[in-house]
């Protein structure tokens, strides 16, 4: 291995790890912030859950999107037939990593809404065009990816709408929410586990040499889901909320008559002679005291305790959906960092042959990516997560669950299809979907504008930077090696 | 920081502040009792003190109203119609406004009322306050309503409470008419301007209950508009 190769590999490792660090530092917070905001998880728990499941997602399912990023978006035949094509590809991938990382840094500094995914896709397209001409880019795949950026928030929004409408119909807007929760919550447990298992097993675990066919995977997924939902229903039965109103029949129905009494006693007091007035005042005090109790009873009868139970169960369900989100996020976003990194490693090792064959992404690279995310999360991400959690105070666990479930399902499907999408945008779509089902008390529609801005701004910016870095790196190596 | 996208998505719920606003407006209306007790007893000193307190509460209600309106930009995405919510707040605000108006009218000049009318006046005030009390019970359901996304048994319960509110308001109307009739029966022995001023005072006091009722009906629309 020549000095130049060692240098390239070192740079690729550093840039790849830096990107993964960036994802851990910023994107994980977006994905998990809703859980902290709804208090389903404390900050510490959220970090632990994120670390474990981000890593698992990156390691177990991360290779699909990584494959797309490292060789799906550029037309390899253009480069393999080119003189010095392998080196140019390596420089380009390095430039892409550096461009995306630098752009994220700048955008983060100025507080612009950008997406890691869009940065890296823009960067790879940018260098692809200048290095290989317009035909150097696999426009079909790029078109698919860009369309998925519109489709993914729409899809997660639809799922979020349906899931929350379902929760409303089956659990919230029924006469007995507690019983309804016990009956229906296991279904949601089933869905989370079944989908997660299905996506992981169906041709997913290449790394563990465990590729199941669709029917096999479906069967296993249903079994896992069923076991989980039975366990879930047993656990739900043990959920208790403090002081479920056992203080006898409510005073609230007396409200109307008592209000009339208050009025009449006051009237009497204004008519009687001073001697009798004392007695009437005594009666009035008693009635006022009773009225106070009735007011309290009116304020608390309802359902308040029942909804506390519902939300407590959903707080547990939201722990599940948070794991699901972290897993999905790891599976999709790790590719943004290690896709180009893996490409450089393969090119350095095997030359042009590396990208044509069906070689899997080396496991150690997935490990580096997963580790980078976890390190970024523990060094910086927790701070961002704490900030987000403090700002999202109006979210209840049932809403958080619906949104996270919708987002995670969408992301994990995109991951299986090998499409890099933005986790944040998908989650925004899901939250808006829940809002459309009248689930959210107040949302800021202007964020949608930010998302569109992110598409419009980040792609050219990533592309432009990567073009600059590509020429700089190429020039440097040529001069150095020349 | 990029984490802003998600945290920017969530803005402060307007339903808690709306509840606070109603509470403050009704607190103001509750001063009607001491106000009339003082006025009917010609206790000018006490009347002035109560009027001052009403002005204070009305001002606080206004501040809350402005605060809510400031946090309701058009770009906000709510589970209810934004206009319905703004109308609801307007009705709530009018409860305090009318109370202040009553206090203002009573302070215009030293007024005397024939003794036989006084019990009926206090009865009117009590009926108005019963209506306000019902409105307050409805207001305390606001957060619950938001939690159940304005549907289901909770919404039905609130709708039933609003029906009851309507009944109370009707009763205060009936007493208001009785009182006016009784007042005009005295027209020969009173100054015409005094009669008209009293009539105006009773009418405006009735408006307090009226706005409480309209608040309820706005809430009804808010629930119905999906």
The proportion of strand residues of chain A reads under 5%
Q: What is the CATH fold-level name of chain B?
A: Methane Monooxygenase Hydroxylase, Chain G, domain 1
Helix and strand element order of chain A: HHHHHHHHHHHHHHHHEH
What are the segments of chain B in which pLDDT stays under 50 over at least 5 consecutive residues? none
Global shape of chain A:
elongated
What number is the mean pLDDT of chain B?
92
Indicate the radius of gyration of chain B in whole angstroms: 20 Å
Mean pLDDT of chain A: 85
Q: Strand pairing plus helix content of chain A: what structural class?
A: mainly alpha
**What's the β-strand tally of chain A?**
1
Oligomer: heterodimer
What does this protein look like?
The complex is a heterodimer of chains A (about 475) and B (about 230). Chain A has about 475 residues and is mainly α. In chain A, helix 1 (about 5-35) packs antiparallel against helix 12 (about 305-350) and helix 7 (about 140-170) runs antiparallel to helix 8. Chain A has helices at about 5-35, 45-60, 65-70, 75-80, 85-110, 115-130, 140-170, 175-200, 215-235, 255-270, 275-300, 305-350, 355, 365-390, 395-415, 425-435, 445-480, and one strand spanning about 445. Chain A starts with a helix and ends with a helix. Helices cover about 80% and strands about 0% of the residues of chain A. Chain B is mostly helical. Chain B has a single domain, classed as Phosphate transport system protein phou homolog 2, domain 2 (Methane Monooxygenase Hydroxylase, Chain G, domain 1, Up-down Bundle), CATH 1.20.58. Chain B has nine helices and one strand, in the order ααααβααααα. Chain B is elongated, with a radius of gyration of 20 Å. The model of chain B has no long low-confidence stretch (mean pLDDT about 90). The chains are: A mainly alpha (about 475), B mainly alpha (about 230). At the A-B interface, helix 1, helix 5, helix 10, helix 11 and helix 14 of A face helix 1, strand 1, helix 6, helix 7 and helix 8 of B.
């Amino acid at each position: 291995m020549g000095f130049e190769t060692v240098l390239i590999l070192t740079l690729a490792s550093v840039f790849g790890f830096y990107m993964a660090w960036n994802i851990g530092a910023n994107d994980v917070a977006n994905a998990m912030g809703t859980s902290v905001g709804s208090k389903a998880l404390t900050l510490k728990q959220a970090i632990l859950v994120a670390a474990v499941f981000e890593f698992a997602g990156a390691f177990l399912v991360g290779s699909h999107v990584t494959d797309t990023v490292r060789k799906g978006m550029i037309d390899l035949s253009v480069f393999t037939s080119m003189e010095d094509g392998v080196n140019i590809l390596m420089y380009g991938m390095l430039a892409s990593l550096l461009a995306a990382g630098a752009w994220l840094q700048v955008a983060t500094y100025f507080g612009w809404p950008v997406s890691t995914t869009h940065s890296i896709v823009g960067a790879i397209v940018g260098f692809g065009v200048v290095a290989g001409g317009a035909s150097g880019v696999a426009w079909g795949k790029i078109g698919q990816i860009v369309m998925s950026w519109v489709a993914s928030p729409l899809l997660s929004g639809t799922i979020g709408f349906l899931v929350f409408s379902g929760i409303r119909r089956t659990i919230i807007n029924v006469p007995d929410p507690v019983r309804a929760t016990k009956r229906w919550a296991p279904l949601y447990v089933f869905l989370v586990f079944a989908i997660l298992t299905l996506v992981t097993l169906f041709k997913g675990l290449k790394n563990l040499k465990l590729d199941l066919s669709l029917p096999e995977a479906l069967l296993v997924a249903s079994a896992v889901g069923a076991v989980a939902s039975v366990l879930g229903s047993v656990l739900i039965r043990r959920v208790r909320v403090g002081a479920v109103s056992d203080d006898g029949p409510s005073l609230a129905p007396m409200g109307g008559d008592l209000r009339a009494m208050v009025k009449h006693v006051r009237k009497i007091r204004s008519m009687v002679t001073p001697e009798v007035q004392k007695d009437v005042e005594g009666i009035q005090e008693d009635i006022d005291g009773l009225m106070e109790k009735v007011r309290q009873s009116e304020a608390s009868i309802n359902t308040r305790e029942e909804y506390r139970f519902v939300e407590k169960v959903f707080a547990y369900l939201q722990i599940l959906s948070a794991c699901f989100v972290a897993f999905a996020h790891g599976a999709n976003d790790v590719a943004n960092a290690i896709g180009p990194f893996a490409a450089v490693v393969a090119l350095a090792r095997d030359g042009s042959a590396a990208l044509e064959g069906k070689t899997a992404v080396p496991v150690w690279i997935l490990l580096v990516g997963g580790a980078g995310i976890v390190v970024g999360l523990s060094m910086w991400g927790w701070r961002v997560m704490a900030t987000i959690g403090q700002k999202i105070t109006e979210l209840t666990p049932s809403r958080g669950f619906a949104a996270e479930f919708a987002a995670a399902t969408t992301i994990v499907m995109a991951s299986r299809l090998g499409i890099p999408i933005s986790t944040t945008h998908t989650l925004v779509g899901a939250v808006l979907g829940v809002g459309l089902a009248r689930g959210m008390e107040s949302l800021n529609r202007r964020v949608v504008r930010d998302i569109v801005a992110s598409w419009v701004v980040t792609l050219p910016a990533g592309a432009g930077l990567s073009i600059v870095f590509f020429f700089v790196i190429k020039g440097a190596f040529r001069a150095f090696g020349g | 920081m990029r984490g802003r996208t998600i945290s920017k998505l969530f803005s402060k719920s307007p339903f808690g502040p709306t509840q606070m606003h109603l509470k403050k407006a009704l607190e103001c209306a509750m001063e009607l009792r001491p106000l009339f007790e003082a006025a009917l007893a010609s206790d000018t000193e006490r009347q002035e003190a109560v009027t001052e307190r009403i002005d204070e509460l009305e001002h606080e209600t206004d501040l809350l109203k402005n605060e809510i309106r400031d946090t309701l930009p058009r770009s906000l995405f709510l589970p209810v119609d934004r206009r319905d919510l703004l109308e609801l707040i307007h009705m709530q605000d009018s409860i305090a406004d009318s109370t202040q108006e009553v206090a203002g009218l009573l302070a215009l000049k030293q007024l005397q009322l024939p003794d036989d009318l006084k019990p009926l006046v206090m009865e009117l005030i009590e009926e108005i306050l019963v209506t306000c009390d019902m409105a307050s019970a409805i207001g305390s359901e606001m957060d619950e309503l938001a939690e159940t996304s304005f549907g289901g048994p909770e919404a039905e319960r609130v709708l039933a409470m609003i029906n009851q509110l309507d009944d109370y308001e009707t009763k205060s109307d009936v007493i208001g008419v009785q009182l006016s009739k009784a007042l005009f029966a005295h027209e020969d022995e009173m100054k015409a301007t005094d009669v008209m001023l009293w009539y105006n005072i009773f009418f405006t006091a009735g408006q307090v209950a009226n706005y409480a009722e309209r608040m309820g009906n706005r809430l009804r629309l808010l629930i119905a508009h999906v």
